[in-house]
Fold:
Amino acid sequence: MKTYLRLLGFARPLGWVFPQYAGLIFLHTIFRIVNFTALIPVLQILFNLNTERKAVTTLPPFSVSDQYFIDVFYYYFGSIIQAEGKVAALYFICYVLVASVFLSNLFQYLSALLLARVRVNTVTNLRNRVFGHITSLHLGYFTENRKGDLMSRITTDVQQIEESVISTLKVIIKEPFLIIGYFIALMRMSAELTLYTLLLIPISGGIISYLAKRLKKRARKTQQSLGRMTGILDETLSGMRIIKAFAARSYIMGRFADEVGRYGKQNFNIAIRSNLVSPISEFLGVLFISVILLIGGKMVLSETSTLDAAQFIIFLILFSQILNPAKAISSAFNNIQRGIASGERVFEILDTRPRINDKESPRDADILTNAIEFRGVSFAYEKKTVLKDIDFSIPKGKVIALVGPSGGGKSTIAELIPRFYDPIEGQILLDSTDIRDISLKSLRQQMGIVSQESVLFNDTVFQNIAFGKPDSKIEDVENAARIANAHEFIVQLPDGYHTFIGDRGGKLSGGQRQRLSIARAVLKNPPILILDEATSALDSESEKLVQEALYNLMKNRTTLVIAHRLSTIQNADEIIVIKSGKIIQRGTHTQLLESGGMYNKLIKIQTV
Ligand SMILES: Nc1ncnc2c1ncn2[C@@H]1O[C@H](COP(=O)(O)OP(=O)(O)OP(=O)(O)O)[C@@H](O)[C@H]1O
Ligand SMILES: [Mg+2]
Structure:
């Protein structure tokens, strides 16, 4: 219930929608009932029943009650029969019928339009909120949660909610209106018979809600399964090259087939229950109508009651009409369960607080004047300690290099500086201010990051370089590309700077992708630079281009560079050797060479 109200909250701005909707539905209901009840006099004429009993000879005084309208109707009806005969009266009723059918459908259409607007609003608000929230979450969240699952939450789960919100709104407003309207009409025809029907409805309601009860849990499981499926799909599509290279097709197909199988089974389980709802309610409906047929039929035959045959027929028709909204309520109940299950999955995202936050009233970062300093920093991703007691500083304008065996923790150190993660012990200081006291935005504005894997988007070259600064001038972008040694290859692309580069830059070579990422950092022109050199082997020509690009980028900046090719960092002001999360050696290239140890070993391996 809480989830459901919260979902409706996203329908805002609702304002006038509810009263408008209620008004339209009210009118729709009235004309719906007129449709059926206007048939009573027709039957009375055709069956030659005693119409005098209902005759109204004078126009009644105006009052706001249904009796007034009924009397007015019978007044004109009676006078037409008297003046022009029964056929003319049939015409009259047909006009009334056509008009009321037209009006009831018109109002239904208008109300449906209103609901469509609410639906569109809800989903737009919800999707944007979830997307915005996802982008605000800490990086760790995305390694802890599967991407496919997140994707299916924002796509299919929101879709599911979309359907459920609409059916709930109908249930809340429209169907009860119809039911109440029909009941009033039924009561007018025969209060006694209506009371019997009142006893029957809750019984069927109870049975149906029992069936729907456990649907929610199953719906949740199907959505989870769908999430895993999207995940496999995502990995497969982005890893197609590797899958083919390792002949892993049958493995990945097996994984997918398992998940599809599970999904199918869940869905079938849901189908078993949800498909029961409709036949059972239909069966119950006919059963109840038979009961009423018996009771009402006896009443008509006994001739003691005021109910005549024409009214009884219409009574039965109206009663069977009540079953429609009742059915709609039960199937909506189904939908709501699914929608709520999806809603909970979406709210799980919205309720995740980003772990990396601005503290209250953070400072803005000042231009670096002194140094970035790591003081006794330890870090663990989950349980396992990855960094232990790291102390070093990057003085302004200097280049500090991190080297060491793979998995030692170099990239992790680099990710702590823009606060992608927070250390569990110790501090990182920017000119003796703890970076946790600085606003994330201004902190990150100081930095350019070229990471181990170039992160590019399916957009134009221009947009990828100007990323985050969409109003950049083309000259500036070109200039950045020149500095990054990228201009040459870009102008040879089919549309130059306006060439789309494919998913994750798939239409470019590895070296080209790297130079684009470097151009992006050049354009941002940050005082602090963090370079995580890519390990992917480039041929010596493009390596030279990338290398040059990096040198150009590093000029006049404070730089932390992680190097796998040691030749690139021989001029660094300090080289720090990291192994298993600890600093095991430090000094300049010549100092380290003289002192032997790990650095020497690494150099030897690379020069063989
Ligand atoms: N998101 C993560 N969740 C959990 N553990 C992680 C995560 N990222 C890295 N690790 C672990 O942290 C350790 C250090 O990883 P890191 O990426 O910092 O190494 P590295 O020195 O950059 O290695 P390489 O030279 O191969 O790039 C590794 O043991 C790795 O398994
Ligand atoms: Mg790394």
